[in-house]
Input
Amino acid sequence: MQIHSPEFKQRAGDALHNAPLQRALGNLREGFPVKRAAAVARMPEFEQLRNEGRDLKNHILANLDFYLEQFEEKVSAQGGKVHWARDAEEARRAILDICRNANAKTVTKGKSMVSEEINLNDYLEANGVTPVETDLGEYILQLRGDHPSHIIAPAIHLNLDDVSNIFAEKHGTPYTDDPAALMQEAREMLRRQFVAADVGITGANFLVAETGSTIIVTNEGNGDLTQTLPRVHVVISTIEKVVPTLEDMTLFLRLLARSATGQEFTVYNTLSSGPRRPEDQDGPEEFHVVLLDNGRSEMIGSDFQEMLRCIRCSACMNHCPVYGAIGGHAYGWVYPGPMGAVLTPKLIGVDQAGHLPNASTFCGKCESVCPVKIPLPKLMRHWREREFERHLSPAGFRFGLGVWAWFARRPALYRWVNRSSSWFLRGMAGKKGRIRSLPLGKGWTAWRDMPAPQGSTFMDQWKQQQGQRQSSASTTKGKS
Amino acid sequence: MSSSRQQIFSNIRRGLKRDPLSGERLDQVRNRLAAHPASTIPARSQLPPAEQIALFAQMATEASAELIELPSLDALPAKVAEFAAANGITELVSASDSQFNQLDWSTATEVTLSHRVARAGDLASLTGSFCGIAETGTLMLLSGATSPTTLNFLPDIHLVLLRQSTIVGSYEDAWGKLRARGQGMPRTVNMITGPSRSADIEQKLQMGAHGPKRLIILLLRD
Amino acid sequence: MNNAPTPPKVGFFVTCLVDLFRPSVGFASIKLLQLAGCDVDVPESQTCCGQPTYNSGDRRSTIEIAKAVIDTFDGYAYVVGPSGSCIGMLHQYPDLFEAADPYYERARALAGRAHEITSFLTDVVGLARLQTAFNGLVTYHDSCAGLRELGVKQQPRQLLAQVEGAELTEMNEAETCCGFGGTFCIKYPDISNRMVSNKTANAEATGAALLLGGDLGCLLNMAGKLKREGSKMEVRHVVELLAGMTDQPAIGESAADLAYAAGGR
Output
């Protein structure tokens, strides 16, 4: 995906005025959070599972090298092959080589955000291999030349007529606005693709070290057709997704569906462990797992290590008031919302993605719904600290902060500043209790009035009262 | 490529400020792997058998699976024929498990059983199952010689035989059963909870995205 | 004075916004604390809790400010302030210091005795039956820091329940951020505006005459928006109602508005 994160403010502004997008975002607000709350209420152990999920992820990260070795050993023992990729370029190359060896013309794809991260589709096309997205949302986006705006509901920014229009145009079928009919169209079109594909590429929600398995979690079943019908199955996954055992995987599965869509369990949870066995009648002959680093290993031992706990459920963005106002495309790259605000600067640089961790009120809602308790606001604050250290924040802002901090350490002068500000603002307000326009406060008064100070400052009034009290009483007050 | 692997591992170890695990620490993680301890298992999944079966039925129905009661295995051909007739099914792509082959299908004249992998265009399939998980009304199916995975996904209607005696409470119970087979992992383990669906079009839920539109569970009271 | 228990010694942390914009919140708080039997002091050397520099990534300045706050409030049994975000900031101080630093333990101690006012009046000391009355429908905005950092949710509601005649009606999305976020509302005004517009719409939909909350940043933000929208809905800090000090103009209003309102009712 092309990087547009530096244009965050512009894109956010556009999004706020995009009526169809706002309508779509309204669906999100009424959907996932409500469903998640119901699912959580139904499982009394949920809070306990969150704590265990956090602790288990921390254990995994502390032993990541061991579990990755185990995983690789088991995959190889079962006839699969693990490919290690340091960066996007190596991952793309590995996948293309596999496709070339298989003489692949078309490849079907299950939904994979990692494949977006490495720009896989464009690369395959440029090299003569046609990728076909099979997740309904991703398929719609591919037809439109569009990109996902959410990590589990990729086409959440679209309305019904967007889908009706693109299907009529690309399928050559009569226009319909019946969602069932549209899905039937997609089902039929993609069936041919499923069957014709030479290679199937899926992501992985988790990698299981104990059994050398990868697991995909879908509601549609497209991932299953992608990985069963073609001769070659390729899994693309980043390294932090490994879990030790089937039981450990189960803990995360319990957290995942409830946190994501509010379902008790996703319809299809499928474990793949190597190529087909000699006695199998179907299944791929080759099983490849491409393990991508792309910056994750460097996060170990850093201030941002906790971000590696993420299980890509999307609860954070579903509950984020900023995401809810502007949608995912404003964030300008693959990962939106709070998790994107933390991860994106790491992957593409804070100089490009600096807006993302700044466009937050630190309301903390994200952290409160994260199934593995990632302290997202704290991590965003770390980015702000990096920017401050590197003088990436605007000079005027740094100066203003410095001035403020200087005064804040000098109580008498601080009083004076407040006293003066109070006087000035009261002057601006006049008889009214509010100010309509502030010369240095256009960000505020463009949309709101500024309430005026009541009168002199509290500290001045208090001091005056204390003075009066002291002069009328014989005892002195003070801390003892 | 091997240098990529080296680089990745050395980055990880640098971050963790240690060399590869050894000695006691290595034993600890190895033991943990071998012991595969479970995390908290919800109380809901630890009910007595009768409640468990009832819970399975409730959760599966909630997930839009359809349950058909099967009083005995011998009754299967008749039930299947009845369902086929009611739904315009003349061909059933079937697993070739011995449990099916042993039955008397002679009365099921209106529907033919085809023992092969599924193809696009197949209307309905019939498979067995490894177990049922009451916690969420989930079926566990294993790929194998007699049951190709495509039977679970390509046809529009998937009929699954589930023996009541194989219903367990939690996924952990199911993993225990799987390991007890002593055969290692099959190529595919499917956990299936209801028919295929998508809400990708304006967040409105529709059944039948790519997998089966209907999931029929033939619940054998054994 | 012989066998009476010593009144708890409270250091009052007025907070910048109350100091500058709305001293009556400070006076109302102190009145309530005294009603609860506390001996209240206002240390003169207090300034700011350090949130602006902390959230802007200026850790160094924040540490200097934190040390000053820790020094200022030394010796008080409790530190109480009318703001969930400012008291929440005091609770963050331990993270600023290395464990070996003497300020680390002092920061931990401060966090242990620093309380937001409504939770102090409910969880720590008891407030005898409030003698205030208020006739009307009110609604309450849960400020994020107070809610999620300090667990302030039931406490203001418990206190409001003691006010005769005040009927609380909950708004939709009472716990959703109002869009203030310190410098956020200045740096991302369009997004902030959307958030506060949602909030004022939800508040007005309750039909309440009065919008209450526990954090002046939020209250200034919401009041400013309501006034710009031409709304007649009043906004106050909850302590003003609890202390029976609603005769003053509401936030963003003047004596002129008060006279109008009085005449209009």
